[in-house]
Specification:
alpha/beta, two-stranded antiparallel sheet, single chain, about 350 residues
Length: about 350
């Protein structure tokens, strides 16, 4: 354990920073595969990268699997997920207190709102090492319009873990099984993800994330805390190298060198007539590359894939090996240089 000037690790972000799916590393293979095979009615197929082939999944498959995960972990399941995520691994290695305010489905405005609450509660100060995990653009979050029984009016009285399905329309109109947690009486502090929606202007969504990122960085650093911004999936920063794993890279390879430029070109090319678009794109790509940590979970999964090892959890989040690689080989050496 290295000497450290920090007393606590504080984390904000979405499912990647929360540690979604990481409880799977504690599940025996026969337990998780048998259960998911049961939920898919015998159609389960595991890809070489460790991810299940979700092409035949129904919404109930996701809902029931996530409930199975949380039941397996027990009542403290959130603490377990958080402890296996990269901020938790850093806190454990440095022997620090740990507070994770991330949540699956959080959009950038929900992350900012969570940060506002903790900033005003005095949870961040000069002794804090803060991880700010970026999220997908286009996530729409409503703060005051979700009824207490969840967005799909599921069972009364409210239950602890009512997962509901959400539509995730990312770049390339790729549908995934992204899940959100409906709020109940116990969890009124959580913000509910409703859906992804770009509305034909991907560039505006990128600018929104950029503005929130700058505001959050300034808020954190106003307390003299250290802020490390992580782009877990290389949505904004340039990847360190092109991925050679076809299962992994089929979706993201066209974006690896300039994700902002290439994403905007694909989403907005036919409708964006702003004559200053190219100048804005250059500024955005440059600043995201400079302000975010130079390694990501996606970069680490590329490294693991090159060794022909699985990097993915069953529903697609990076597995614990990926989080551990990011921490051991990149985050800890960086932190060691600033303490």
């Amino acid at each position: 354990m290295m000497d450290c000037k920090f007393k606590r690790v504080v984390a904000f972000g979405d499912s990647f920073t929360y540690g979604a799916e990481l409880i799977q590393c504690d599940m025996p293979d026969e337990v998780k595969y048998n259960k998911l095979n049961e939920l898919t009615k015998g159609k389960l197929k595991i890809l070489p990268n460790g991810k299940a082939d979700t092409s035949t999944f129904k919404q109930d498959t996701y809902k029931n699997w996530i409930k199975f995960e949380s039941d397996f972990a027990g009542p403290n399941y959130e603490a377990i997920y958080n402890s296996y995520a990269y901020p938790g691994l850093v806190a454990k290695e440095l022997g620090l207190e740990y507070f994770n305010y991330s949540y699956p489905g959080y959009g950038i405005d929900a992350i900012y709102a969570e940060l506002m609450l903790q900033f005003n509660n005095g949870s961040i100060d000069k002794d804090s090492l803060v991880f700010l995990g970026l999220t997908y653009p286009g996530r729409i979050v409503k703060f005051n319009t979700i009824n207490k029984y969840g967005s799909d009016h599921i069972s009364k009285p409210p239950v602890r873990n009512p997962f509901v399905s959400n539509t995730y329309q990312g770049p390339r109109n790729r549908d995934t099984g992204a899940m959100g947690l409906a709020r109940d009486e116990v969890e009124r502090e959580k913000f509910m993800l409703l859906r992804f929606k770009y509305g034909g202007d991907y560039m505006s969504e990128i600018i929104k994330v950029y503005a929130y990122m700058i505001a959050m960085k300034q808020l954190i650093e106003s307390t003299d805390a250290k802020c490390i911004i992580v782009d877990p999936s290389c949505i904004y920063k340039t990847r360190n190298k092109e991925c050679n794993d076809p299962l992994h890279g089929a979706f993201v390879d066209p974006y690896y060198d300039a994700p902002i430029r290439n994403g905007i070109y694909e989403m907005d090319e036919n409708i964006n007539v702003n004559p200053r678009r190219e100048e804005l794109i250059d500024i955005l790509q440059k600043d995201f590359n400079e302000l975010t940590f130079n390694m990501s979970l996606l970069d680490c999964s590329d490294i693991i894939a090159e060794g022909n090892k699985p990097w993915s959890c069953l529903l697609g989040h990076p597995n614990k090996d990926t989080h551990e690689l990011l921490v051991k080989d990149y985050l800890l050496p960086f932190i060691n240089n600033i303490i």
